Amino acid sequence: MAQEVADRRDVDFVLHEQLEVEQLSRHDHFSEFTRKTVDLIVSEARNLALKELLSCQREADEEGCTFDSGQVTVPKAFHRAYDLFRQGEWIAMCDDPAWGGQGMPRTVAMAAENYFNGANFPFMLHNILIHGAGKLVERFGTDQQKDLYLKNMYTGKWGGSMLLTEPEAGSDVGALTTKAVKNDDGTYRISGSKIFISSGDTDLVKNIIHPVLARIEGAPAGTAGISLFLVPKFRVNKDGTPGEFNDIVCTGIEHKMGIHGSPTCAMTLGGKGACIGTLLGEENKGMRAMFVMMNEARLHVGMQGFACAGASYLNALNYARDRVQGAALTAPKGSSGIPIIQHPDIRRTLLSMKTASEAMRSLLFYVGFLEDKMTLSADKDEKARYQGLIDVLIPVAKGYVTDRAFELCSSGLQVFGGYGYTREYPQEQLLRDCRITQIYEGTNGIQAMDLLGRKLGLNQGQAFMDLVTEVEQTIGAAKKVTELASLADTLETTLNHLKETAGKLAGDLGSKNILTAFAHAHPFLDVTGDTLMGWMLLWRAVIAARKLGDNPKKKDTAFYQGQVTGARFFISTVLPVAQAKMAVIQAGDTSALDMADTAFGS
Amino acid sequence: MAQEVADRRDVDFVLHEQLEVEQLSRHDHFSEFTRKTVDLIVSEARNLALKELLSCQREADEEGCTFDSGQVTVPKAFHRAYDLFRQGEWIAMCDDPAWGGQGMPRTVAMAAENYFNGANFPFMLHNILIHGAGKLVERFGTDQQKDLYLKNMYTGKWGGSMLLTEPEAGSDVGALTTKAVKNDDGTYRISGSKIFISSGDTDLVKNIIHPVLARIEGAPAGTAGISLFLVPKFRVNKDGTPGEFNDIVCTGIEHKMGIHGSPTCAMTLGGKGACIGTLLGEENKGMRAMFVMMNEARLHVGMQGFACAGASYLNALNYARDRVQGAALTAPKGSSGIPIIQHPDIRRTLLSMKTASEAMRSLLFYVGFLEDKMTLSADKDEKARYQGLIDVLIPVAKGYVTDRAFELCSSGLQVFGGYGYTREYPQEQLLRDCRITQIYEGTNGIQAMDLLGRKLGLNQGQAFMDLVTEVEQTIGAAKKVTELASLADTLETTLNHLKETAGKLAGDLGSKNILTAFAHAHPFLDVTGDTLMGWMLLWRAVIAARKLGDNPKKKDTAFYQGQVTGARFFISTVLPVAQAKMAVIQAGDTSALDMADTAFGS
Question: What are the transmembrane regions (chains A, B) (predicted)?
Answer without folding.
Answer: none
